Amino acid sequence: MKHQLDFEKPIIELQSKLDELREHPEKHSLGVSFEEEIQLIEKKLEETRRQIFSNLNAWQRVQLARHPKRPYTLDYLGKTFTDFQELHGDRLFAEDRAMVGGLARIGGHRVMVIGTQKGRDTKDNILRNFGCAHPEGYRKALRLMRLANKFSLPIVTLIDTTGAFPGIGAEERHIAEAIAVNLREMTLFEVPIISAVIGEGGSGGALGIGVADRVLILENAYYSVISPEGCAAILWKDRAHAPKAAAALKITAKDLFELKLVDEIVPEPLGGAHTDPDTTAVNLKKHLLRHLEEIMALPIAVRLKKRYDKYRAHGHFLEKVQPPAEEAKPALSPAVSVMARAAATA
Questions:
Q1: Tell me: the pLDDT tens digits for 249-264?
Q2: 18: buried, middle or exposed (CB in 10 Å: 19+, 13-18, 0-12)?
Q3: Taking the model in full, what pTM does it have?
């Protein structure tokens, strides 16, 4: 099997044994009936799959989020949404293929949908810049969101990027300013906004289209201020410590939900979204529609207040409270201390 992950090896081995048995049963049935042997392996395969995918650690979920067969934004635009009409360009510099967006329908609702798009092969990845948008990508997203706000269309964003492109050209065209403006404007749009992290949610590159009334995340996606490899390179001076960094960063869907940084986890089929893209698309659609209808029912003023309060509440910390005992007296310098003793004995 292509693109197999390390922790999937027991599943791959059992599946290979099962396939071989079905093709050449006479080689394997040692006194046991052919059908019984197949049933035993199928049962063991199902138990092994359930055991492995029910106990994934943070790094293993990062690997699933990066799986090359995982559905990308354009896949969901063809399955979760209908009548998608792509809109191009930022009207300032260029068209950025790493950021896609346009008009679409979900259920009975017309929406503006925007998302980051990776490539499937080398040629496509070069076209899409590996899903890392330039400043013009974020300015295109902002143009489409302003258009949606003008015509009272809800906004749905799909996040799947390692981060904004960090190259010289991006810096020259002010990538930080482009993302910052998006953050500011998204807090003020009067239309409902829903974001869904469908794969990787990398730093400001993800947040540039991620300020929303509701933030959803797929079960095996992650959302982080830095990649595990980047964190490991800074803290341990070695990218090999990425699994340790992934655990420390608390970047999995479960961690983020417990920290109240996302609003709901969208379940994936056993084995990850790439094993059954159609079911994943149906699950995402169901959750998006429910949250969209809840948000649309709110008055604009209430919606904006809740959005503001949501982000003000992010980031929990504790302060050490001074005990109510007598306050500590200021320490005296050596010279003052000597003078004080001399005055006391005079």
A1: 999 999 999 999 999 9
A2: middle
A3: 0.84
